[in-house]
Amino acid sequence: MQASGTRVKRPLGRLGRLEVLAFACTLSMITYLDRVCFGAAVPFLIRDLGLKDISDLKWAFTAFSIAYATFEVPSGWLGDAFGPRRTLLRIVIGWSIFTALTGMVGLKIGAFTFGGLGLLCLVRFLFGIGEAGAYPNLARVVANWFPYEERGRAKGWIWMSGRFMGGITPLIWTLLVVGSTYTTPLLSWRGAFVLFGCIGLVWCFAFARRFKDHPADATSHPVPLATKEVHALPWKLLFANRSTWLLGLMYACASFSWYFNITYFPSYLETRHGLDANSISGSILKGGPLLLGGFGCLLGGYWTDFLSRRFRSRRWARRIPAMVGHGLCGCCYLAAIYANSPWTAALAISLAAFSNDLMMGAAWATCQDIGQRHTAVVAGWMNMLGNLGGAISGWTIGTILEMSIARRAAADQVDVVSIAKSAKQAALTQGYDVMLIAFIIVSIIAMLAWLPIDAEKPLERT
User: Fold this and answer.
1) Interacting residues of 418 by C-beta distance below 8 A, sequence separation 6+
2) What pLDDT score was predicted for residue 80?
3) Fewer beta carbons within 10 angstroms: which end of the chain, N or C?
4) SS3 sequence, 123-143?
C-alpha cells in the first residue's frame, strides 16, 4: 500500500491529465444538463400536473437540494476511501435513471396516471441522492492528478464546462421540445428527459473502460494519491476547523443566490419582464447566468493559480478572487432591481453570476489544500452546506412569491385563484425585488466569510 503523497509508477497506457480532465469536464456538463432541464420543463410540468403556477413546485426544487446536500459528505467519503472511479459510476448511473424517470411522472396510460406532484418531489429527491458527491469526487480526481499550482485552473475548466452546458440547456430544450419560428419540436418533454438520462449511461460506459484512480507516472511535483485504506469520516477534524465552517457558510450564501439561476430565473424573465417564452433569443437570455458564470469559473481558477505562484501564499491567492467576486456580485444584483427590460435584467443577473463564480476555483482548490487525503470529504462538506443554502433558497423564493400574491389578493378582496393577471404580475414583481435584496445581503456575508479562511492549515499535519 502506498502512503498518501507518494510518487508511484503504474502502467496505465496513454491515459494522462488531459484525458482525465476531459472526463471530468464532460461529467460536469452532463450534471448541468440533467439539472437545468428541470427548470426549462416548468411550463410543461405545470400544465400536465394540473398546477396553478411555479410556486407549486417549490417543494420539488427543495427536495433535490435537500437530498443533494445530505448525501454530499457520505459520497465524498466513499471517493476518499474506495476511489473516485467506482463512486462516480454509482453516482452517474443513479442520477441518470432518475432523470429518465422524471419524464414518466404524470404520464396517463388509459385511466391510470403515473403519480403527480408528490411523486415528482420523490423522484427529485432520489435524483438529488444520485447526483450527490459528483463534484467532491471530481475534487478527489483533481487532487490525485494535479499539483497544487494547477488545481485552480483544473477546477475552473470543470466548472466552466458545467456552467456552459447549463447555459445552453434552455436553447437545447427549445430546439428539442418547444420549437421555434425556424424549427419544429423533435421530442416531447418526457422524451427529452429519457434522452438526457441515456447520455449519462453512455458516459459511464466510456469512463469505466478508460479511467483509473491514480496517475501512471511520477511528476516533478508530489501529487497526493488516494489509498486503498478506508479512513474514518473525520468529523472531529471538520467540526474543530474554523475554515471548513466558514467555507460552508460562504458557499451556502453563494448558492442561495445562484440556485435562482437554475430554478426561477426563466419564469422571472417571463413574468417580471415580459420575455417571449418560446423565442430563440429568449432561451439564450435564460442561459446567460450560466454562460457568463462559466467564464467566471475559468478566469477565477487561473487567477487563483497565478496569485499562488506570484505571492507563494495560498491564503491570499484563494481569498482575493473570491472576495472581489462576491463584492461585484452584490453590486450587480442591485443593478438588477432597477432593470426595466428582459435584456437589461438578464445582463445584470448574468454579470452577478459571472462575479459570483470567480470564487469557484479558489473555493474548491481550498478544499484540496485543507483536506489533502480527506479532500472529497471536505469538498462534500462545503458542497453539503452550500446546497442546504440552495434548498433554503428554493423554498424561500417560492414562499416570498406566494405571500406576495396572497397579500395582493387580500388587498383586492379576491381569492388567490381569482386574482387578475395584471395584479398577479405586480405581486410577483414585488416579490422578485425582495428576493434581489436578499441576494445582495448574502453576497456581502459571503465576501466577509473569506477573511478568516486559511488554505495553508490542513485538517491533519502529515
Assistant:
1) 409
2) 78
3) N
4) HHHHHHHHHCCHHHHHHHHHH
Averaged over 196-203, what is the pLDDT?
93
Q: What is the pTM of this model?
A: 0.75
**Superfamily name with CATH number, domain 17-215+233-449:** MFS general substrate transporter like domains (1.20.1250.20)
Rounded mean pLDDT, 5-14: 38
User: How many other CB atoms are found less than 10 A from the CB of residue 14?
Assistant: 7
Q: Give a three-class secondary structure readout of 131-179.
A: HCCHHHHHHHHHHHHCCHHHHHHHHHHHHHHHHHHHHHHHHHHHHHHHC
d(CA 392, CA 390): 5
- For the chain, what is the mean pLDDT? 82
- Residue 89, helix vs strand vs coil: helix
Residue 160 has pLDDT above 50, yes or no: yes
Residues of the chain with pLDDT > 90: what percent?
23
The torsion angle over the Cα atoms of residues 61, 64, 69 and 72, rounded to 10 degrees, is -150
Domain residue ranges in the chain: 17-215+233-449
Q: Which pLDDT does position 412 carry in this prediction?
A: 82
Residues 105 and 216 sit within 8 Å (Cβ to Cβ): no
The percentage of residues in the chain with a pLDDT greater than 70, rounded to a whole number, is 89
CB count within 10 Å of CB 227 equals 18
* Local structure of residue 274 (DSSP, 8 states): -
